[in-house]
Amino acid sequence: MNGDRTLVVPRHAGRNVLPCAVLFSRLLRLAHQVPPRIAIRDLRANIEKTHLDLLVDVLALKEQIALQLSGQARRSLARDEEVYIAIIAPGGYEFAIAILAVLALGAVAVPMTPALPVEEAMYFVTKSNAVAVLVCGASEPLGRDVERRMRETASQDFLCMSVKSHIGSSALSASEIFISSDQYLDDNKPGVVIFTSGTTGPPKGAAMRRAFVHDCALSVAEHFNVTQYDTLLHVLPVHHATGIGIMFFPFLISGALLEFRSGSFDERWIWERWRLGAQDSGRRLTFFSGVPTIYMRLMRYYKSHLSRLPKRELNQYVAGARQFRACLCGTSALPTSINQFWTDLLQKRIMQRYGGSEFGAVIKMRPDNPDVPDGSVGEVFPGVDLKLSDGDEGEVLVKSPVSFARVVLLVVLAYTV
User: Would you state the pLDDT for residue 333?
Assistant: First the structure.
């Protein structure tokens, strides 16, 4: 008989069935570990959750979203057509549940910051043609405003759903969760939309392929040698390319512990958390990522406060800074003076990289290469075709497997992909 067997057998779906996709197969294997390992520590919510907790909550939320979506949206999902669902959330456990539930539905996730005014939130929802918005924590009033306006102006079926109300709403053992025997989800179709900062015009929504959440994530994890024994202190926005593409999916799929501390940045708190990690082996941190402003503020706090402490106490903070296997920096170049301060304090370089929301971090420093020249962001990542438009200068021209599938807002891009 010609054709795939899935064409002639009933669909394998249900409340305890995850889609046939690399990310979910990996997470289910992690959920079977004995003893169970913590997957996410959310410091704002004061909770720790294992991989099993995570998947159980993902399945519960997935089921509820499917029940409340319009019939048209459900039919589109059944045909593996593009259905976009926005997520308004800071980094944390609720965000992890939300984005995984959207992906488990076969929909496209559109992360958004809770700091948006309702007019900007409407812009993102409208441009991505989202059919629903999932809201986390204090972002529910914003989500309800978006829902009201969307129903008045665009779609009576638009849905706003709170993630928190579905946490812990069901209980399953790892052996009761299955991976669908249906076909693998098409990795070439969109999985996540990342909106750019809008520095060159209105924010553009880069629709990243589904492979972004596992193949691209694994390439980042392998580059930095991330394992299940690592712990990342995650303080970056999860609606940005770095916060989700470098610091979320790679650590999640590696089985590492993601420790989220969302909200306003507090340099004093960061230094105290670093010190705790050096004093308590159970709270040790191995990875940290920031942007130049973060490293500048941490440096200023060190110089204005910590450097004046008695040497014994100061050494505790220095040990906290030196506990990391790697500290990363992206978004823009780290100024030379700040970079040198951290090189001296850490006794190793901060690993910088170059990339963009639309094409990923295509140039990276390697953790095992100490001979990187000052001011360098490293080498071209394996598999990336990159050159300058005018020989040794000009625009950066990139062909990368991480490149976006399409732009949800039609504009002329300033570089080649």
Answer: 80
Say whether 182 sits in a helix, a strand or coil.
coil
Q: What is the pLDDT of residues 128-181, one digit of tens each?
A: 999 999 999 889 999 999 999 999 998 899 999 999 988 887 889 999 999 999
Question: Which strand (E) or helix (H) includes residue 158?
Answer: none
Closest to 82 (Cα-Cα) out of 109, 50, 120: 109
CA-CA distance, 266 to 53, in Å (whole number)?
A: 29
Q: What is the pTM of this model?
A: 0.92
Report in angstroms the alpha-carbon separations of 278 from 134, 264, 265, 272.
37, 24, 21, 10
Token digits for 16?
């305890």
Domain 11-212 CATH (choose: 3.40.50.2300, 3.30.420.240, 3.40.50.980, 3.30.2130.30): 3.40.50.980
Q: What angle do CA 47, 232, 300 make, to 5 degrees?
A: 105
Q: What is the pLDDT of residues 220-236, one digit of tens each?
A: 999 999 999 999 999 99
CA distance 142 to 147: 9
Q: Residue 255: what are its φ and ψ, rounded to 5°?
A: 85, 10
Same fold, 11-212 and 218-381: yes
- Annotated domain spans of the chain: 11-212, 218-381
Q: How far apart are CA 120 and CA 237, in angstroms?
A: 17
**What is the second-level CATH architecture of the domain 218-381?**
3-Layer(aba) Sandwich (3.40)
Alpha-carbon distance values, 321 to 264, 276, 286 (Å): 21, 11, 10
Nearest to 287 by CA among 242, 327, 252, 340: 327
